[in-house]
Amino acid sequence: MKDKSITIRDVAAAAGVSTATVSRSLDPDGAEGVSEKTRLKVVEAAASMGYQANPVARTLKTRSARTVAIVAPELTNDFFMDLAEGIEKELSARGYTLLVASSDNSVEEEKKRVAMLADRMVDGIVVIPAEDRGDHLTAWDKKGIPVVLVDRLIEGAGLDAILSDNEAGARALTRRLLEDGYRHIAFAGGDMTISTARERIAGFTAAMEEAGFHPPRDSLYLGGMRVDDGFRHMDTILQSNTPPEALVAVNLLVHLGMERRLLVRPSGRPGEGYMPAIAAFDESNYSSFLPACRYTAAQDAAAIGKKAVQCILERIGQKRRSGNAGEVTEPRTFRLPVMIMNHFQKS
Amino acid sequence: MKDKSITIRDVAAAAGVSTATVSRSLDPDGAEGVSEKTRLKVVEAAASMGYQANPVARTLKTRSARTVAIVAPELTNDFFMDLAEGIEKELSARGYTLLVASSDNSVEEEKKRVAMLADRMVDGIVVIPAEDRGDHLTAWDKKGIPVVLVDRLIEGAGLDAILSDNEAGARALTRRLLEDGYRHIAFAGGDMTISTARERIAGFTAAMEEAGFHPPRDSLYLGGMRVDDGFRHMDTILQSNTPPEALVAVNLLVHLGMERRLLVRPSGRPGEGYMPAIAAFDESNYSSFLPACRYTAAQDAAAIGKKAVQCILERIGQKRRSGNAGEVTEPRTFRLPVMIMNHFQKS
DNA sequence: CTGTTAGCGCCTTCAG
DNA sequence: CTGAAGGCGCTAACAG
Questions:
Q1: Is B81 within 8 Å of A82 when comparing Cβ atoms?
Q2: How wide is the angle at C-alpha A276 spanned by C-alphas A272 and A279, nearest 5°?
Q3: Which positions in chain A touch B144 (Cβ < 8 Å)?
Q4: Which of B227, B291, B345 has the CB atom closest to A347's CB atom?
Q5: What confidence tens digit (pLDDT) does each residue in A77-111 have?
Q6: Which residue of A lies nearest to B95 if distances are taken between CA atoms?
Q7: What's the CATH number where B47 sits?
Q8: What is the pLDDT of residues A192-249, one digit of tens each?
Q9: Does residue A347 form part of some domain?
């Protein structure tokens, strides 16, 4: 029992034309060099037979799988999820598919995954970098596979990047706290090696200084981007004699960690009644339920994904036209605005 | 400037053998019919040249892309996220890739996406069905592309399915509430058309009846699986004269909706002091922060994903051996246990 | 505008 | 055990 897959030849026979004409008539990027009459004839014949061009054969020939891949440090992450949805929507509207891979927070894995994807002739790769190293990514980009960075920037890599406006977001969060009358405000989480954190810290510092405050060293609880780190920082804060009145959290996870630490503190210990106001990056479905949460900066991950796809498709177009050689546009960095959300009601 | 991709021919030349021998030596499913000596020679040559077999060409020939796809009603969903991570991990360990598509909660879209994926010669498809209709899925499965259902069962579709043990989970949740002394317990959310909901409702009812209670009609707040629905149900409950002391929520979203409704109720209105105990399906990072949440039934989505992949690979193996014809194993349904979690501490 | 032809890179009988 | 040869289904020059 054979797979009776109908090929371009069958259609050609049925329409009384050559396979080349069928191919041209059915070009997904718009038929060219075919008279409208024959094109219609072919399209009709194809439809009536239920012909579907074999994408794999097409890929082998054109070296394009009409596929975009995304590589992220981990898949279980709200930002990634929204991003993937945005990307998928944008891609499927254009007949592209989405390949997903996890780098498992390791540059080595990232390197392997990206290489594997490149071998599969994906047309472009969206990367949330695992670390601040991008040589391997730049290499692929130069080889003709557009790579777009998302969420984190790798400076000097010469790659397109779509990011939230982290500095403005952090500044806005900080200002809100200042407007609420808080003076002793600290920043929690984030490594200076990560562009996202660096920019958010800069925004915080800028807002404080604009307001005439020069945040001392000890009002930066730096280090880490994960739940544990937030937990740890809040632990330290609870043992402080002069804990900050308010905090800016570098991201969702650190925020969550801090809230967790507040939630589980036993009564009758120092810091029992302490409840800071927290302004944090990343809105979630649950932000309103977090007792300390006052403001969040919501990133538009779906829009970032959409923009990333547009970026990639643009690059592909350039490459096609310039024959993979001509000088293409300079790498660009896009900053998408974040939205500040209020979270007042607490039970 | 050409893509100097090295091909099997280059390796053959370098190793002083034919391309056929190279192909055999580098078969990803284990080399056969090659002497160990020549195999080593080939492998070494390939490695030294940095040869990577072109997966697309291989796919065209073997009709297998070494890829598994997942189709879900939506990507922004905790369960999906964990599932995808589980699947990806299991796949990448075996050199497979993961393709992701959204059916956008529509069977029509689901049909299109699945067809597209099948055309790309994916080796199997994991589907979270958008609705209770599976004819198109069964068709592909019979055509030789294994389809595995996840999360929701479509009865009579004759497809493998990996599910949580919904009935046992609901029963356990209900029992916990009963053990805590609650008597007037209701169930919230879920349509009888969805297997997942049906099973959970059955578990609830069974536990209640085992305890000697026969839940009346009005203690089933049925309908919907989303945040809005939970919100709506709690709205109704708040206006009731005899609101239930405790609730079992059909899933995360309905649970969240109910908590939201409780969170935003204004003071000085009926139901102001009302605070039910909620036992809900699905654990999240934030469950501890939900004021009414007492118990959750945590599904092991990663394990479900892993099992789904194993299922698919098994089917692929069967098909290979039986030449796509021989009678394969009966479709099987696997039930993975859920874990009941306590959530006591509230601020 | 259309047809002919030559592969894309690999796998897989079929001989040897 | 190994090699030679013929496609998988499609597209892109090149002719006509």
A1: no
A2: 150
A3: 3
A4: B291
A5: 999 999 999 999 999 999 999 999 999 999 999 99
A6: A116
A7: 1.10.260
A8: 989 999 999 999 999 999 999 987 777 899 999 999 999 999 999 999 989 999 999 9
A9: no
